Structure formats: structure tokens, C-alpha cells
Amino acid sequence: MDVLFTRGGACQMLRHPPSHVPPPCTACTTKEVDQAFETSKVAQKHWARVPLCKRADYIKKVAALLRENYQPIADVLMAEVAKGKNDSKTEVSGW
């Protein structure tokens, strides 16, 4: 994917379907990406200590929230990766 980075940390995809120009996105610095990975490593250690049945309950709750509120997320998928409406809905909601 060709991406144009501009001052202020914004980026814009250069290759996209002619009928769809995705909105600009925020670019992360290498330091921000490294920090996100380190944070996720710490979080994973805590998550691994949560009993499996409790993790399953959390995942079921998140899945229900995604099904109830799929539209804004599906809209972002359509805008950012030029996914079709039905594919976006299925990917987020699971149905």
C-alpha cells in the first residue's frame, strides 16, 4: 500500500479504488508503536492469569456489544479499506 505521510503525523493512502478516497489517518511514531507493544506484553501477562471461564464471559460480552453497535465500526472499515457494506457488517457483527 502506498502511503503519503505529511507534517503533523497524518497519512493518506495513495492507492485506492477511483470511486473511494479514504479519509486521512493518524500516523504513529516508532516510539509510540514500541510503547504499545510493551504495554500489550504487560497486559497479556495479567490476562493470562484470569481464569478461562471468566475470559470467555468477557469475550461474549464484547461480542454482544459489537453486534449491537456494528454500524460505526463497519463504516470505518468501508472508509479505510474500501470493504463493501455487507462484508463490513459481517466482519464486525459475525452475521
- The separation of the N and C termini measures 29 Å
Secondary-structure-derived class: mainly alpha
Summarize the biggest pleated sheet.
Answer: 3 strands, antiparallel
Poorly predicted spans:
none
What is the percentage of strand-forming residues?
5-15%
Order of helices and strands: EEEHHHH
The strand order across the widest sheet is: 1-2-3
State mean pLDDT (0 to 100 scale). 82
Work out the radius of gyration: 17 Å
Specify the number of helices: 4
Instruction: Estimate the helix proportion, in percent.
Output: 55-70%
Secondary structure tally: strands: 3
Give the overall silhouette. Answer: flat
Structure notes:
With 95 residues, the protein is mainly alpha-helical. The protein has a domain at 50-95. It contains four helices and three strands. Strands 1-2-3 form a three-stranded antiparallel sheet, with no helix packed on it. The two termini are 29 Å apart. The model has no long low-confidence stretch (mean pLDDT 82).
